[in-house]
Amino acid sequence: MSMCKKETRMFVYGALFFSTISLHGEIMLGQLVGIENNSKIRLRDNNIPVVCEPFGIKTFEWLVRDADNPAECQQSIETFYRSHPHTRVYAHEHLRTYQTYHYEKIRNGCILYANGPESYSEMLLNEGLAIVDERVDNKEWNAKLKRAQIRGKNRKEALYESDILAKCSEKKR
Description:
This protein is an alpha+beta fold. It has eight helices and eight strands. It has a six-stranded antiparallel sheet with strand order 3-2-1-5-6-7. It has a two-stranded antiparallel sheet with strand order 4-8. Helix 2 packs antiparallel against helix 3 (70-83). The longest helix is centred in the N-terminal third of the chain and has 20 residues, at 5-24. The termini are far apart. The relative contact order is 0.16.
């Protein structure tokens, strides 16, 4: 009982592919079990809870935390949310609870592959609901995130149609 060359090649390629995945093991599967807000998502990976905060970006919640004047920043964001209520629940509208997503933990963040090859971080940047965190230095993601931010700027979405960036300037470190 011998395998033909084609079957042997497929077996070898398959074994190489799966051994590569198991060696690196970076991209995992998690079931979305809860959305706290646009910047905090809860997954379950093999019954282990995982908090997934979008990698490489600063969402509105992060902008408030890092602002010179958090109260003024929060007021600006609330004013924006009142006129654009769907943006407050962006994660709820674009992610599905109990659906399984690929994700990858990177340092203090999480890459959630939410729309094919597009990450949730890129989705937020495209909509102007976040800015690139300049402190993050990751060769693989820097260019992707900056391109997404430029798309949001060019479309004049959220942050770029409001005074949020002006009101939420960062504390001097």
